[in-house]
Amino acid sequence: MMRLPKFSYLVPQTITDAAKMMGDAGPAGQFVAGGTDLYPNMKRRQQTPQTVISVGRLKELHQIAGDGQAGLRIGAGVTLTDICEHPVINRDYPAVARAAKLISTPILRNMGTIGGNLLLDTRCNYYDQNYEWRKGINFCLKKDGDVCWVAPGSSKCWAVQSSDLVPLMVAMGARVRLVSTVGDRMVTAEGLYNDDGIDYLHKRPDELLTEIHLPPVNNWRAIYKKLRRRGAFDFPVLGVGAALNFAADGTLVDARIVLGGIAPAPVQVAEAAHVLVGQPLDTERIAAAAEACYVKARPLDNTDHMMNWRKQMTRPFVTRALEELKR
Q1: Is 271 within 8 Å of 295 (Cβ atoms)?
Q2: Any bridge partners for residue 186, and if so which?
Q3: Which of the residues in the chain have pLDDT under 50?
Q4: CA atoms lying within 13 Å on the CB side of residue 197
Q5: What are the Cα distances from residue 147, in Å, to 136, 138, 141, 247?
Q6: Does an H or E element contain 314, and which?
Q7: pTM above 0.85, yes or no
């Protein structure tokens, strides 16, 4: 049985208290909400904080306000189940509700939060193992070792960004609020992620993610498609987030297609958007966008399924996403 290491457990009453506690804890501190990612990592000794600060009871993090006309503000502590079931989200941002429903299992969605999913640790077959297994291969570059076993000649960690909501949030142009003792700042979802399996967030350890802001819907339509071995529980080995803005005549004013599950950060395919914008969403344009995504997708052998097959699946998954968004 894998057991948690010893740690101090703090429960702040407000966001300000949480930020102060983290400031006092320093690098040895870690925030936790649902714990569905952090606690398993601690059991495997991938993360070993000496102080864990629980923000799960902060009321400010559980609020949802706004709508599709004005934009929606979602507290980072809102559970994935609440995202799936919230009437305004289902009415105005149905792609978000559907993407959340694809995450893990009902029990874990009851515990996991939208903020936790956006900050999900990068994953890799050589990293997500117990301590003894990792010790047997002399660890890996991401934790305790000096070699990336996915690409031994590389100085970069290639652990994969495996969140279901991240590709969709980037495609939709979401923003997030980060709070610390030195103030707060707004960051675009796209700007939150860094293409490095170790240093995978443009976020300081002392910053607490408090809110996610979705822009007004206007003429945007969005969708998320997920490839995984089983119909539930599994992380994506390919995720496709797409958002399209249609003009009155059916031509595309703007488009964003983002791939997840294939690299340390979400991959926005500008070439796919280029072939779509200013054109009607017909079969020819969809095929061209899918091809552009296929060319851009370069998965490595560090998750489930063969990497070449995962690359091949980019075409049909992008095609299905765009076909469903077609008017």
Answers
A1: yes
A2: 177
A3: none
A4: 29
A5: 13, 9, 5, 50
A6: helix 314-325
A7: yes
